[in-house]
Amino acid sequence: MKCAKKYISAGVILTLSLALSLPARSNDKLKLVTTIPDLADIAARIGGDRVEVEALAKGYQDPHFVDAKPSLILKLKRADMFIQVGLDLEIGWVPPLLEAARNKNIFYGGTGYVNASEGIELLEVPNVDAAQLRAQGDIHVWGNPHFWLDPMNGKIIAGNISAKLSKISPSDASYFQNNLATFTAQLDSANAVWMQKIAPFKNTEILAYHNSWPYFEEHFQLRIAGFIEAKPGIPPTPGHLVDLIQIIKNKKIGVIIISPYFDDKPAKSVASQVGAKVIPVAPSVGAFKEVKSYFDLFSYNIDVLVKAFEETEVAPIH
Amino acid sequence: MNTIRHLIRHLARIGILAIVATTVAFAQEKSDSNSDKEQIRQLQERVLELEKKLSAISTPVSGFAAADSISASIQTGLFNGGPASMLQPVLQQQQSPAGLRQSTSQGMNPNISVIGTFMGTRDGFSEAERDINIGLDEAEFAFNAVVDPYARADFYIGAGKHSEPTILPEALHDEEEHAHEAGAMSFELEEAYVTLLHLPLSTQLKAGKFRTKFGKLNETHPHAYNFLDMPLMYQYFFSTHGFVDEGISVRWLLPNSAFFQELTLQILNGPAENFSFTRAEKNRLLYLAHLKNYFDLNDNTSLEVGLLGATGPNDVTDYRSNIFAADVTLKWKPLQKNRYSSFEWSSEFLLSKRNEAGGEISSVGWFSNMRYQFAKRWFLGGLAEYSEFPEIDTMNHKAYSGILQFYATEFQKFEIQGRYNDGNYFDSFFDVMLRAVFVIGAHGAHQY
Description:
The structure holds two protein chains of two kinds. Chain A is α/β, with parallel strands linked by helices. Chain A contains ten helices and eight strands. Chain A starts with a helix and ends in a 6-residue tail after the last helix. By secondary structure, chain B is of the alpha+beta class. Chain B folds into two domains: 2-85; 113-441, Porin, CATH 2.40.160.10. A 16-stranded antiparallel barrel of chain B has the order 1-2-3-4-5-6-7-8-9-10-11-12-13-14-15-16. Residues 14-35 and 53-104 of chain B have low confidence and may be disordered. The interface between A and B is large, with 82 and 85 residues.
């Protein structure tokens, strides 16, 4: 029993000593936490100097498979607002984090909870019996969730964030709305430049590793002819790669795009046999060191694609 | 303002319909013309252009986001309505993009999943009993949902075969228990609890029947372990299902800004099937406290250290057992390519002090597991174990295993474990286990 008391005393002392290192609020800014850095950059532009923003995932991480580390719970515990992509993109890690955060303000339906997908016109919403859905690989039941890769959807995301910020801090509502107007105008003018750059390559066919790009494809009028993955989330089989090689030859495809968190060996193997290029593209802000903002995301991707199209000299299909 | 916007939309839709109608009429009238198709194409483009303008009117600017969201939701809902969308297996408490779906009765169902575990083993206490067994080891039915803004509820029902620990000393054999071993399946309510999520002082309260917060492993369901069998330490000190009990559990997230720290206090009724503790009379309850400390060593590496103390009755009237335990888990997983390689080392140790009429019995148990992921779907692991018995500190069982796992997807895995058993109360032997685990439905993620 003496032994028991000794252990219990040691535990109590350790607990109390660690517990007394209380957190201190640094300022009165609203603390915003987002799942991916793209949402963080947009939120920072709308919130301006009234907010502090932090993303849970890095731009070079696969947003489907972020680990729900306890350290992320601490960030959510202190948050005034939480913004997620939604559409089950973060289904594997956000629910356990929100449930452990003990922060009802950012819980589903709370005053500080934002589902960025509200109002987005969704692509690729599956139209099959849900019980058969997983036969198609990692398909999202609500539709493809990579909608932030269309810059026009950036305006809708910003609108959602602005509306929620205005509710949380009504006295700053006009400030947030001005920021939204500025962001929207900047995005429109930047988009005009991107569209001009990519215009000569309208309807050019490319391959992608994973089906993350339908919104990007539609907005910038490219055509993705196939994927390196056999099905979303399912690694390619040799037979599938042979089929892809045939597609590349038939369609004279010169470019395969890939996100930095995927293994590029299968893509390079295919490319090397048909003289195509494997181009790493940024799926999110922070994917590469040059991609520091939501604007950089599109500038970078358009620039690398245009350069690749010019180098491969593949004629677009009009 | 909304009225004006509705009016604009209404007029635009009428305009589009009028153009379409005119187009059709015009096209029919000129059906003998060679330019019909071209004219139709031009008019279709005109319709698309008008739709884009309508969409531009609907694009949210500043405070109109909510109204436009509803508009888009209705469009999406109508476009994708029908039987398929009513059968969605996933119901998370996030707002659906297609708001209409939420109004269906199916949409009110909890997350439902079923996990099947197929096992093949070649084991047995002695050479005479050693045999090959194949079959369904368990089917687990899980139901999880948020109850209301304050709570969530979890239910797990298992249909499985009754089993005893791997090699139980004869002295601990219970003939009544042994009688169950006919391979018959039986249903058992494995867990059923409600969790109040947002209580004051960063606490959460759980009440019901649940896997206790013993160490790192026990709360996790066995199908998610890095190895195929319940560690010997758990089998011999608690049960083949681990340490499951009924009662209340309070989790306190300590106000420590430096690292994650959570203290769990559990007051338990005393488990029905357990080698260390028992249900007792005279309000003698079982108490358990676990302190979890989690550190991010860097972006890719984390360390978790847990300390535990538990005390509870080990007989009906007088005596208690005290257990002290520690768990350590080190994880390495590169952020960028986290699906292709990882490493994990996890160990647990316990010391049991059992008071009996004849005095105190001190016994120990531990296990240590390492697992390395060498390809996207492949994991190679090792497990070393040692266990004595709460009632017998002179007998021990040691085991050393190699494990190979193949994850076809997140929903299906195949595993094989070879184990060398040694101990001072049986002849050493080698056994092999094969397991396939498959899941349908929406199964929640396990804790990190």
